[in-house]
Design a protein that fits this description.
Helices cover 37% and strands 15% of the residues. With 407 residues, the chain is of the alpha/beta class. The protein folds into two domains: 140 residues, Aspartate Aminotransferase, domain 1 (Alpha-Beta Complex); 250 residues, Aspartate Aminotransferase, domain 2, CATH 3.40.640.10. The chain has a seven-stranded mixed beta sheet, sandwiched between helices. It is globular, with a radius of gyration of 22 Å. It binds pyridoxal-5'-phosphate.
């Protein structure tokens, strides 16, 4: 008899975006003549930078010629891309990461989801609340949780974010083995200062724990004092893995390219307490289960770092961040306390009521779609997330309608 992995039965249905879509469809049916503006999505809206398009096309053309054709590439990624990343994202910030410590992949969602395969099933896992659901769900699938009750899975350590801690929870007083951190944060837009990350690195060292640091929104940091990489913290290379993506940085959500950094001295332990390099384990896993990102896509990603690429990428990010500033300023002017929007394309708004009720109010009175905070965890109740990924015109129109709806 073929039997299922029963851990999948513990998963709550991915209720959030399904439920949003249902409520929006219902609204449209009732109000066929009313337009809606979507500020709920976590997806980019601007087209690829021209430098990436050109490199992408050139890569495709090469593949069509006998002289330029390539079959399977290295699973870990082509050296031309790994070298650029090591130089531009790390060495330029004083962080010594070697090209061969970088694994190119087709997304940070898969990498942050797959990395837990390397660890024992009876470790303790700490996740933020509110949280990017991938960290939680993949550990549930692997059997590291108890049942779901009261908005939470048994067995996890929840790191609670609120306005008082600025959505940057401090390390817990109990022991955690695997810790998920995401800065700049989705959904709250919060960023961690150097001293706060230092506390986490110290905690990981003291507890022989590992930090999984999701830096998918690193490019949106505007405050010069905020670290872009966990490796800007001394000692972090021993205790942290970092995830980055071209998805939000350069509009690659539909193109697919990301990378994971595993320093050679980053270690975990076997049952006898012996040390093992995670680099070697991930290399084994990656080359067994993954066959590399396509050549043209890696050329398109390389273009982010060379020629006109950096300036074009900057222009797109600045565009979204100008949207973010407008949103945050307007919501604050309307009397709402906000987090985010300064170093991240998300504004996390304290709506002072049930977050689904506020969502319904904005939809029905303003025709604006946001994301209810409750969908990201228990601590998200009372908040909504507004995304800066849209056109200036739509953002301005939406803010006018929100003002009309709440004043
Ligand atoms: C968008 C996003 C990513 C990137 O995912 P990709 O699979 O690379 O597109 C990673 N982490 C968070 C928190 C995100 O919001």
């Amino acid at each position: 008899m073929i039997r299922i992995n029963e851990n999948y039965l513990k998963l709550t249905s991915s209720y959030l975006f399904v439920e949003i879509a249902r409520r929006v469809a219902d609204f449209q049916k009732r109000n066929p003549d009313k337009g809606i503006i979507r500020l709920g999505i976590g997806d980019v809206t601007r087209p690829l930078p021209q430098a990436c398009v050109d490199a992408f096309s050139k890569g495709v053309a090469e593949m069509g010629k006998a002289s330029g054709f390539r079959g399977y590439g290295p699973e870990q990624g082509y050296a031309f891309l790994r070298d650029q990343i090591a130089k531009a994202d790390y060495k330029s910030r004083g962080v010594d990461i070697d090209a061969d410590e970088i694994f190119i992949s087709d997304g940070s969602k898969c990498d942050t989801g797959n990395i837990q395969e390397l660890f024992a099933n009876d470790i303790s896992v700490a996740v933020p609340d509110p949280v990017y659901p991938v960290y939680v769900d993949t550990n549930v699938m692997a059997g590291r949780s108890g049942a779901f009750a009261d908005g939470r899975y048994g067995g996890f350590i929840y790191l609670e974010g609120d306005m008082a801690n600025g959505f940057v929870p401090a390390p817990p007083s109990c022991r955690a083995d695997l810790i998920y951190l995401c800065y700049p944060n989705n959904p709250t837009g919060a960023v961690a200062a150097k001293a706060q990350l230092k506390e986490w690195v110290n905690y990981a060292k003291e507890n022989k724990a590992l930090i999984l640091f999701d830096a998918a929104y690193e490019a949106f940091i505007t405050d010069k004092s905020i670290p872009h990489s966990i490796y800007e913290i001394e000692g972090a290379k021993d205790v942290a893995i970092e995830f980055r993506s071209f998805s939000k940085t350069a509009g690659f959500t539909g193109t697919r390219c990301a990378f994971t950094v595993i320093p050679k001295n980053c270690i975990a332990y076997d049952n006898n307490g012996n040390k093992h390099q995670l680099h070697g384990l991930w290399n084994r896993r990656h080359s067994t289960k993954f066959n590399g990102v396509s050549y043209p896509v890696q050329r398109a990603a390389e273009a982010v770092y060379i020629g006109d690429g950096p300036a074009q990428v900057r222009e797109i990010i600045d565009y979204y961040m100008a949207n973010a500033k407008l949103i945050r300023e307007k919501m604050e002017k309307l009397g709402y306390k906000c987090a985010g929007g300064v170093n991240a394309p998300y504004i996390w708004v304290e709506c002072g009521s049930d977050s689904w009720a506020f969502f319904d109010m904005l939809l029905n009175k303003a025709g604006v779609v946001c994301t209810p905070g409750a969908g990201f965890g228990r601590c998200g109740e009372g908040f909504i997330r507004i995304s800066a990924f849209n056109s200036r015109e739509n953002v301005e129109k939406a803010l006018g309608k929100i003002e009309g709806a709440v004043s």
